[in-house]
Amino acid sequence: MAKATGPKYYVSLRRKRERVTNYAKRLGLIKSMLPRMVVRKSNSGVFVQFVNYEAAGDKPLATVASKMLSQDGWYPRCNAPTAYLAGLKCAKEAKKNGVTKFVLDIGMQTPSKGAIVFAALKGAIDAGLETSYEKSMVPEKKLDGSEIAAYAKALKGKGAYEKMFSGYLKLKIDPEKLPEHFQTAKKKIMSG
User: Fold this and answer.
1) Residue 183: which H helix or E strand, with range?
2) pLDDT digits (tens, 9 = 90+) for 126-179
3) What is the phi-psi region of residue 150: left when phi exceeds 0, alpha when psi lies from -120 to 50, beta otherwise?
4) What's this model's pTM, rounded to 2 decimal places?
5) What 3-state class would DSSP assign to 51?
6) Which pairing describes strands 59-65 and 103-105: parallel, antiparallel, or unpaired?
7) SS3 sequence, 77-144?
8) CATH topology for 19-143?
9) Is the pLDDT of residue 4 over 80?
C-alpha cells in the first residue's frame, strides 16, 4: 500500500477563490505583450486604465475615473455615454505615453453584446488606438445618450420621471438634452 505524499486537495489562490481574478484569462492577456485596457464598472461609475505588465507589478500608463469627466462638462453615471467618454479620455492620455495597440481586459464581467465595457472600447478606438474586436459587441446607438433622452421624453409628466432622473434634475440638467451635452463633452476631450 502506497503512503500519502501530500495533501489530498489543493487550495486555490485567494483571489481565485473570491472570484476576483481569472488567472488563465489574465495570463493570456499578458502573453499578448501589449498594454491592457482595464475597464471596471461600479454602481456609480466607470474606471478605465491602460497598464503594462511588469514582474514587480502592473505599471499604469493612463488612468481615468468617470468622476474626472465633470471637468469636461459631463455629469457621470454608470452608463454607456460615460464609459465611452472615459475610454476616449484615457486613450488620449495613453497615446501620449506611446500606446498604439492594446488588448481589452474586462476582468470577471460577462462579455455580453452592447455592454458598457465595449462602449469604453469604442472610445479608445475613436481616439486612434488599435485593437481587434467584434463590431457587433459595441453599443453604437447607445453611445451618445439618445436612448436615455428618448426614455426621459417618454416618462415626462409621469411620477417616475422625477425619481428616475433625480440626479440630473438636481444638477439642473435636462435629461432630454443628453446628446447635446455628450457632443460638447466629446469635443472638449478631443481638443484637450
Assistant:
1) helix 178-191
2) 999 999 999 999 988 899 999 999 999 999 888 889 999 998 999 899 999 999
3) alpha
4) 0.90
5) strand
6) unpaired
7) CCCHHHHHHHHHHHHHHHHHCCCCECEEECCCCCCCCCCHHHHHHHHHHHCCCECCCCHHHCCHHHCC
8) Nucleotidyltransferase; domain 5 (3.30.420)
9) no
